[in-house]
Amino acid sequence: MKTKVLLVGIDGLVLSRALESGKAKTLSGLKDKSFFTDWKVNVPTLSGPSWSTLLTGATYEEHRVQDNSFVGHDLLNRPDLLSRAFYQDQSTTTFAAAGWPPLVDPAGHGPVIHQRKEQQLAYKHFVVVRDGETYGYQRIDSEITDASVYSLENFGADVNFVYFCGIDEAGHAYGILGDEYLTAIERVDGHLTRLHGAITKRAESHGEKWLLVMVTDHGHRDEGGHGGDSEQERASFVIAHGIGRENPQWKSDIEPHQLTDLLLAERA
Ligand SMILES: [Zn+2]
């Protein structure tokens, strides 16, 4: 049986703040017993270009997403991880849930995750679209979690992408040094705990092999905000945890644009 993948995108997470705060118990615990590397994302350290690279394997130059307007992008020629997993093996089922519309909403500028309507109609591809920009990520991240846990428990797609933006939202509003940022970290860590629990249960009851991968698209300046080339804005990481299988044996000097290929290789 092929490894199933759950990629959790945590927007705007300064990992060092999470670890030193003690508020991210699940994330910290997973980091200690998983493949881990810290890497630098490219400039501009913005969600649009950075997630486009992490989710497609294309560099900034290749996908041409320059900022969060997505003007001039070439994403139609740069299929995402879920689509590429399907093209690699057309029995592959996929699931994406996100509250930042450009990642999944066809009404907007993207989406980075291709719609693949035929596969949606055939119950091979599921997309949960929410709008945290309008309704706030505290609420929307919770809805994303509920929908994702339901899907994992009852369906268990082969390749899953689940995205949270509450930490980034708190960083923009309050900076990263105060309690608000840490409270948001604690909240998202709770969501991660539920996702981890759902796939752990599946691995045991169905004898499945899972790879749980966590990644962020950029950090924040102390006062909140990002886009520049400071070390803290470029700081990112990948944690990859095997459940019902070994952790992956990736090199420590991998780069963000290589993540998609590494994940596809785990499915091969
Ligand atoms: Zn972001």
Main sheet record: 7 strands, mixed
The hetero molecules present are:
zinc ion
Estimate percent helicity. 40-55%
CATH H level, superfamily name: Alkaline Phosphatase, subunit A
Number of strands: 7
Counting DSSP H or I runs of 4 or more residues, the number of helices is: 13
Q: How far apart lie the N and C ends?
A: 11 Å
CATH class: Alpha Beta
Question: From the 3D coordinates, which CATH architecture would you assign?
Answer: 3-Layer(aba) Sandwich
Q: Which blocks of ≥5 consecutive residues have pLDDT under 50?
A: none
Summarize the SSE layout with pairings.
Blueprint: E1 4-10, H1 15-21, H2 25-32, E2 35-40, H3 47-56, H4 60-63, H5 81-88, E3 94-98, H6 101-104, H7 117-121, E4 125-129, H8 132-135, H9 137-154, E5 159-164, H10 166-174, H11 179-206, E6 210-215, H12 231-234, E7 235-243, H13 259-267
Parallel strand pairs: 1-5, 1-6, 3-4, 3-5
Antiparallel strand pairs: 2-7, 6-7
The site of zinc ion (ZN) has 6 residues, from loops.
